[in-house]
Design brief:
The chain is of the alpha+beta class. The chain has seven helices and 18 strands. Strand 12 and strand 13 form a beta hairpin. The two termini are 37 Å apart.
């Protein structure tokens, strides 16, 4: 299987399967001399790991990261620093229940990659989906923690802004609230209402989708490149690479199609002796290059495909049958996609920072 790498100068390659011995990544291109410890990475993995509330899969994985290479304990600096060589990160799987999938090993789960993987490769790992599982995203979060070290002056945050058909009230937006509820929701009122909604979805053995908004602040103007190296192009690619994502938008996104040019244009005035924008409909990117405003990206996650309601399908022998996917699954996989979206934003920005520095100096 090819295409397991992402990025150019800051490049990550992930490995491992949902029910394999371990998963992880190799981060290549991280500059030397950056302080990095396992604790720096673990805090972000703890946000993504399963079993943190009744609203996520009850698979019990500590997601403990180990740094295998690329970091040296420098006596002169009194800490662990990157050496500029590839950084290998590993996360062991300790709570696999492969037997949960034995009954469906020959059946194609609707909404999953079972059929397409079989058609392409002639073989698939039926134990939780193998590489197509959202479990793979743990490695991305680990890589994203390293990326944040490359761009320490940039703040990357994400929040769940819609669960199923229920949207937040943006007038209630409070970043401090994101860590106060199990949904990473910036609206305390919406988060409370979502509890009852998702409890009903969970108890019915069903699932729902979500929309996540990722915001990067303090990104300098000038990152990105015209035509084939656009910052928003790479952000769209990064977010679309996340499991279950079916749509991405930058700034106003699809809403821009419904307004006029006068409404959509981000007007400019002088502020403190330099140009400043009066709005941010463009999401902090013009012509593929950052404007210096917040970079804003949203992505839509489909409902978790593993549900308890019987669905019609066929098996590998062409027989028509029904399927019920047992096991431990997220009723809304979008919740744990929040730290994944942050990680992918950080990875793209770290890559573009190094590309900008390489070209401009």
């Amino acid at each position: 299987m090819s295409h397991n790498s992402f990025g150019h100068l800051f490049r990550i390659t992930t490995f491992g399967e949902s029910h394999g011995m371990a998963l992880g990544c190799v981060v290549d291109g991280c500059p030397p001399g950056i302080k990095l410890t396992e604790a720096d990475i673990q805090s972000f993995l703890d946000k993504r790991k399963p079993g943190t509330s009744r609203f996520t899969t009850q698979r019990r994985e500590p997601d403990q990261v180990k740094i295998l290479s690329g970091v040296f304990e420098d006596d002169r600096t009194g800490g662990h620093v990157t050496t500029g060589t590839p950084i290998a990160l590993m996360i062991e799987n300790v709570d696999q229940r492969s037997k949960d999938y034995s009954e469906i090993r020959d059946k194609f789960r609707p909404g999953h990659a079972d059929f397409t993987y079989t058609e392409k490769y002639g073989v698939r790992d039926y134990r939780g989906g193998g590489r197509s599982s959202a479990r793979e995203t743990a490695a991305r979060v680990a890589a994203g923690a390293v990326a944040r070290k490359v761009i320490p002056k940039v703040t990357v945050r994400a929040a769940l802004v819609q669960m199923g058909p229920h949207k937040i009230n943006r007038a209630n937006w409070d970043w401090a609230e994101v860590d106060n509820n199990p949904f990473f929701c910036p609206d305390a009122e919406a988060a409370k209402a979502w509890e009852a909604y998702l409890d009903g979805i969970r108890k019915a053995g069903s699932s729902c989708g979500a929309v996540i908004e990722v915001v990067a602040s303090c990104v300098p103007a000038g990152w990105g490149a015209p035509v084939y190296g656009k910052l928003d192009q790479d952000l769209a690619s990064a977010m679309m690479s996340i499991n279950a994502v079916k749509g991405v938008e930058i700034g106003n996104g699809f809403e821009a199609a419904a307004i006029t040019g006068e409404e959509n244009a981000d007007e400019i005035r002088m502020k403190d002796g330099k140009p400043g924008f009066l709005s941010n409909n463009a999401g902090g990117i013009l012509g593929g290059i950052s404007t210096g405003q917040d970079v804003v990206c949203r992505f839509a996650v489909k409902p978790t495909s593993s549900i308890l309601t019987p669905r019609r399908t066929v098996d590998a022998n062409g027989n028509e049958t029904d399927i019920v996917t047992k096991g431990r699954h997220d009723p809304c996989v979008g919740i744990r996609a929040v730290p994944v979206g942050e990680a992918m934003m950080a990875i793209v920005l770290a890559d573009h920072f190094l590309r900008h520095r390489g070209q401009i100096g």
